[in-house]
Every structure is written in C-alpha cells, then in structure tokens.
Amino acid sequence: MEAALLGLCNWSTLGVCAALKLPQISAVLAARSARGLSLPSLLLELAGFLVFLRYQCYYGYPPLTYLEYPILIAQDVILLLCIFHFNGNVKQATPYIAVLVSSWFILALQKWIIDLAMNLCTFISAASKFAQLQCLWKTRDSGTVSALTWSLSSYTCAILLRFVIMLALNIWVTVTVLRYRKTAIKAE
C-alpha cells in the first residue's frame, strides 16, 4: 500500500512539475510584463535545479528519479527569456545562459565540486525563495507573480513533508533510545 502511494506521489509530482511554471509564463505573456518577478530568485532556482540534475546524472541515478528537473529547467529558461524580453533586452540573458551551460561541465570536473554543490542545494533553494520574498516586500507589488505557480510548488514540497516528519520522529526515537540506554547503564 505504501509503495503504491509513493508511486502515485512520484507521478503526481512529475505531472505538477511538467506544468509548474506554465501559469507564471502565461501570466507574464498575458501582461506583457515581468513586474514582480525577482531575477535573482529565478537565477538561484535555475542554479539549484541544474546542480541537482547534474548530481543525479553524474552518479548514474535512474532517470525517473530526476525526470522533472530538465522540464523545470526548460520552463525557467523560457521564463528567464521572457523577463529579459519584457525588460527590453533579450541579449542580456546570454551571459546568464552561458554561465548555466558552463556550470553543467564545471560541476563534473571533480567529484568534490559536484558533492559540495549538492550539499549547498538546500541553501540555494532557500535563497531563491528569500530573494522572491525580498522583491515582493520591497516593491509591495506582486505584479505578474503567479499564485498558482507558487501553490503548485508548495504541493511538490508538501509530499516531501512526510519524509521530514519521519526524519524528525526517527531522530526523536534515536535520542530517546540513547537517553534510556544511558539510564540503564547507570542503573547497573
């Protein structure tokens, strides 16, 4: 039963990720503006996705474990181009895209580079969210930021919440075992 549920969660996450940025892209295209979107947030998100995808490929994980990342990267690149287009200069996207493409190869030059980058992925993702929040707080204007895209993103993270809860409970049990083990040793 748990395996079936996990499989359903994996496929639903993949489905959501396949369409995750489409509401955002659609909102930007409809408004013909990228107002409210944080370029640093998008670049950090792209970096995090790229590192995760490269790590999975580098270590030979099965494609089904990371299939959503090429889709997310493609959607973010489209969004990046939209931001530069509506801000007046698509050519300004060239250096950013060049850095992202170069990073794909640089990450795999040494094992320690990809491992370090992967260890920093959570911080990169968090920084991405804080950059978007900072932009919203500074401008006090959500502009064309899609609430649906952020809701869908929340859904993909909520599935992982189960694992975080299980992690916390496992740690709690471990600490309790160790606590009572010391008590039992003292009693002898």
Description:
- Helix content is 80%, strand content 0%.
- With 188 residues, the protein is mainly alpha-helical.
- α2 packs parallel to α4 (68-86) and α3 runs antiparallel to α7 (121-139).
- The radius of gyration is 20 Å and the shape is globular.
- The relative contact order is 0.15.
SSE arrangement:
Blueprint: H1 2-19, H2 22-31, H3 39-58, H4 68-86, H5 93-106, H6 111-119, H7 121-139, H8 147-187
Helix pairs in contact: 1-4, 1-8, 2-4, 3-4, 3-5, 3-6, 3-7
Compact overview of the structure:
The protein is mostly helical. It has 8 helices and no strands.
- Report Rg: 20 Å
Mean pLDDT: 88
Low-confidence sequence ranges = none
Termini, distance in Å? 44 Å
**What string, H for helix and E for strand, traces the elements in order?**
HHHHHHHH
* Morphology: globular
Name the helicity range.
Answer: over 70%
* Beta-strand proportion: under 5%
Query: How many separate helices?
Result: 8
Q: What structural class do you assign from the helix and strand content? A: mainly alpha
How would you characterize the largest beta sheet?
A: none
Total strands: 0
Summarize this structure as a short list of keywords or feature phrases.
188 residues, mainly alpha
